[in-house]
Amino acid sequence: MVCYYTTLESIHPGDGKNFPKPGQTITMHYHGTLLDGSVFDSSYRRGQPFSSPIGIGRLIGAWDQCVPQMSIGQKAIITATPEVGYGERGFPPSDSTKRNSQIRS
């Protein structure tokens, strides 16, 4: 499955029935890494899942594009180029990132 400037690689299926809709608040766990595998952010390390409305421009474009294609419980690796990631304010600037993400609810 490919999104604009983003790839979504499913590594664990979800329920296949419940997909987030734009404006709906999702709760998910994730590891954010650079392509070399170094972690720059992780809800797992903080011990608390992340919650936010999806599909309304509050999150990086890669999540707004790909998370609505994931069903509850699904785990996937979302790879994003800077255009739909962090752009010039990235880690480092203009670097692609990966997010190992799992939707909880």
Describe the model.
- β3 (25-34) and β4 form a beta hairpin.
- This protein has 105 residues and is mostly beta strands.
- The model has no long low-confidence stretch (mean pLDDT 87).
- The protein has two helices and seven strands; from the N terminus they run ββββαβαββ.
- The radius of gyration is 13 Å and the shape is globular.
- The protein has helices spanning 43-46, 61-66, and strands at residues 2-3, 6-12, 25-34, 39-42, 50-53, 75-80, 97-103.
- Helix content is 10%, strand content 38%.
- It catalyses: [protein]-peptidylproline (omega=180) = [protein]-peptidylproline (omega=0).
- InterPro entries: FKBP-type_PPIase (IPR050689), PPIase_dom_sf (IPR046357), PPIase_FKBP_dom (IPR001179).
- This is peptidylprolyl isomerase.
- Its EC number is 5.2.1.8.
